[in-house]
Amino acid sequence: xxxxxxxxxxxxxxxxxxxxxxxxxxxxxxxxxxxxxxxxxxxxxxxxxxxxxxxxxxxxxxxxxxxxxxxxxxxxxxxxxxxxxxxxxxxxxxxxxxxxxxxxxxxxxxxxxxxxxxxxxxxxxxxxxxxxxxxxxxxxxxxxxxxxxxxxxxxxxxxxxxxxxxxxxxxxxxxxxxxxxxxxxxxxxxxxxxxxxxxxxxxxxxxxxxxxxxxxxxxxxxxxxxxxxxxxxxxxxxxxxxxxxxxxxxxxxxxxxxxxxxxxxxxxxxxxxxxxxxxxxxxxxxxxxxxxxxxxxxxxxxxxxxxxxxxxxxxxxxxxxxxxxxxxxxxxxxxxxxxxxxxxxxxxxxxx
Length: 352
Ligand SMILES: NC(=O)c1ccc[n+]([C@@H]2O[C@H](COP(=O)([O-])OP(=O)(O)OC[C@H]3O[C@@H](n4cnc5c(N)ncnc54)[C@H](OP(=O)(O)O)[C@@H]3O)[C@@H](O)[C@H]2O)c1
Description:
binds NADP nicotinamide-adenine-dinucleotide phosphate; alpha/beta; 12 helices; single chain; six-stranded mixed β-sheet; seven-stranded mixed β-sheet
């Protein structure tokens, strides 16, 4: 079946999606029986919607040439919001715009509009989940729509899938993870002798850290991720203020050397655990043995470990393959789209 996609945001992730659709759409049709067709894309300045389908390469060229997808034939400056979604007639809306932890816009408005229009939603942005978890989940439930968000918790680590599918029936006691590649990269550089500032600059030069790394180094990004993981898998309804948060600015060379002397490494660990009937979550630097599942992760590696009964520790780690973050995050978004298509019965038997 044809599955129509609309995307808000055409930066690293949105463009990564266009690249991957250009590469793989034929293979997905053959393998999964779904024809993924882009019918709408919007960025800050405008957008384009066409139910007969948009050419991914043409969108990339329009963005390069005019700085906005409104430059694609038929595109419109200022196209946005509910009107854009209606015109795309999408089955799935992908939220891949920049966000914030103050009002979660523009994603929060887009997600509500999409759900109210009967459109299932896949999120790459964390704002709406971090600030409006309960309202969002209640809305999706009431409207019988699906909201998937595996790209928001340390894409491409398949943490949510493990919790929801592989650990079904087991009891998850706690979750711990290195869910922010930027801080792990900086701490790794510092453990090799660089200062904090040098580590930040190196991560920026590698394209891993943002020009303003505040959300990463002060633990906001990791806090949002652990709250999403905790709410999705431990049944809590935490908000960002509930997560105790300490970033990596205070980590000193002396602490790193001390840890190394004990065969340990300092890592920014995000954790959520049960405390009676409550769930508590935190982000803080911790010293870990270098041979444990998280302590051994270096550079921008990421991983999540679930401590469970009766299975013990079940973990998933990712060593990035060298593709840009936008491509691997876009792949994670597509994973959600394809799983959604399968769960909704939109996939058909593959061609023989
Ligand atoms: N990069 C990653 O690996 C990664 C991983 C996990 C999650 N995420 C999340 O995914 C989202 C996108 O990340 P990114 O790296 O692609 O960011 P990015 O490169 O900064 O791109 C952000 C995009 O959002 C668009 N945008 C901003 N305000 C908008 C609005 N009001 N309406 C429509 N579009 C708007 C921007 O438009 P213009 O192009 O016109 O400026 C841009 O295309 C972010 O929320 C990020 O936190 C990213």
